[in-house]
Amino acid sequence: AQSVTQLDSHVSVSEGTPVLLRCNYSSSYSPSLFWYVQHPNKGLQLLLKYTSAATLVKGINGFEAEFKKSETSFHLTKPSAHMSDAAEYFCVVSDPGQGGKLIFGQGTELSVKP
Amino acid sequence: SQTIHQWPATLVQPVGSPLSLECTVEGTSNPNLYWYRQAAGRGLQLLFYSVGIGQISSEVPQNLSASRPQDRQFILSSKKLLLSDSGFYLCAWSRGQGGKTQYFGPGTRLLVL
Fold first, then answer.
1. What is the pLDDT of residues A25-40, one digit of tens each?
2. What residues in A contact B43, CB-CB < 8 Å?
3. Which chain A residue has its CA at the smallest distance from B100's CA?
4. Cα A110–Cα A38–Cα A78 angle in degrees, nearest 5
């Protein structure tokens, strides 16, 4: 069965410093992996996705993630945090064995201090 | 381009009252449609998904039901709301026939009192 673990429930950074949100997955298939962002009381917005092409995936708003099969990781990074990056971030794996259903991590809340 | 709409945006309902939340998608045909619930401080739980008109799969037993009367319309309903039905309800769509990426609507905040 597929699963995803977000290693930090809350991350706090200062504006202008790097962001690292950690995600590990478990999959018996070649996975499709996603990062979504959710601002308060909003729906989820797709940041980026990995679907077995390049292992370094660039997304919107300066975010990127690297797929590392040997470490079963898909960590999200950004070189310099902006105040508007404060939100909840979800790491997600698609389960092809169940018709492409999404398996969500529990989320990481990112706070950005001025 | 495709867009997904949900309404209402917020809803306050008494316990025991009925519920109807609507989701519509524009700009695509025969999408897969999904209903999720997000309880406070938790991740998303898939409630229902549909691969076509009248085809509904339920993920968890609960007080809710779903219907898909038209290709791009997905409705979440309840005959009698419970306090535990409170939450943030999100509709999502993906391309049919193996589309992996899901795109989410703006959500409906439901408070049952």
1. 987 777 889 999 999 8
2. 90, 104-107
3. A100
4. 45
